[in-house]
Here is the input.
Amino acid sequence: MLLAINWAEFGIKAAQLLLSLSILIVFHEFGHYITARWFKCRVEKFYLFFDPWFSLFKKKVGETEYGIGWLPLGGYVKISGMIDESMDKEAMKLPAQDWEFRSKPAWQRLIIMIGGVTVNVLLAFIIYAMILFVWGEDRIPMNSMRDGIWTQDKLMSEIGLRNGDKILQVNGQPIDYLENLNLKVLTGSGGTILVERNGKPQEVNIPVRLVGKLVESKRRRGLLAYRIPSVVGAYDPKDTAFGKQAGLQEYDKIVAVDGKPVSFYDEMPPLFQQKKNATAQMTVLRKNDTLQLTTKVDKEGRAGIPYLTHQQYADMGVIKIEHLSYGFFESFPAGVSKTFRKLGDYIDQFKLILNPDTEAYKGIGGFKSMGSIFPAVWDWESFWSITALFSIILAFMNLLPIPALDGGHVLFTLIEMITGRKPNEKFLEYAQIVGMVILFGLLIYANGNDLFGWNK
Here is the structure.
């Protein structure tokens, strides 16, 4: 069965992903380039994307050829005398020259190798700082959620959470803000959640396979949110949802569906599910009037009833929103702090992937998964937030001790600095080949997951 594709949405997401990766690649490679030039190494090429057989654009300035390749799987700088992805074996057979990477002392080669990672971390600092300076930060305190949580994904109900629970701790750690909740639950696999239910504390166990189960379910909605009252949000003027056709208006409060009382949004879907491809009767309060409205229900059991905005719920007292504003100079330490928080969160997720019992490896995705993170409309705050996160991930992944990554080169250089013996160049060539095979294998697996596997 062919899936319908919203090409406008696809184009916007693809454009954001391409621009984000281009920015990150250029800055990462610039980190290698500038440190190589600093130590007077010759840089033969500086490329955005790879250029096997041909390039889309190239121009030689001085000793360096700058260009854009056609294969958007990364980028590179070709530094003279360095065993890298270019695998220029002929050049390595010649005597080392003063301008070559291999002729430089180990400490200089180490700095060149970590130059890309360093720039990616600095870039994340700056992006987060400017986001905080321009837009500030909104947070929802957990203790402000008047009606507790909403288990949006049924798996959250299956593990024992209930709508209306008030979450106090995850694995013994208090959760201060809603923005941290879902990630802490996911990375808390095998631990416990302490909730307040009906005024009493109760523990809920988090399955070790929680992430694996979520991936297998192929659902892409949220896990936990704050519980919201059954009050109707605003319809888009072009919206043709059945709820709008039935006459629902913004701020209408639905108090019953087919005679069954409801107070919260989460209580309505199960009632509509019983009326698939039929109609349902809604009792609605509109100011001082009580109305009876009849709505159609689609084959999925939906009538199309929008939410209010976070601010509208805050105005109703359902939640509180803390808005933090930062001055220009205040934003920089805040940006550094946020970068390290995000790095810590990513390391926690990476640990899950390394633990086969969690089956989190099933969730590894490629370009499709990366693109899906971006919003369907161009929003600069979201774009820069995602780009900063990708920059942190790129820095971390490049430091992994895998040959062909910066971390592999760093590892061999550190061994050389400790032992005083430089690894054999033939060994480095073979290690580079092995590393590239590993990386291409991971690339194929991740994108295969997107197309054919658990992420489909």
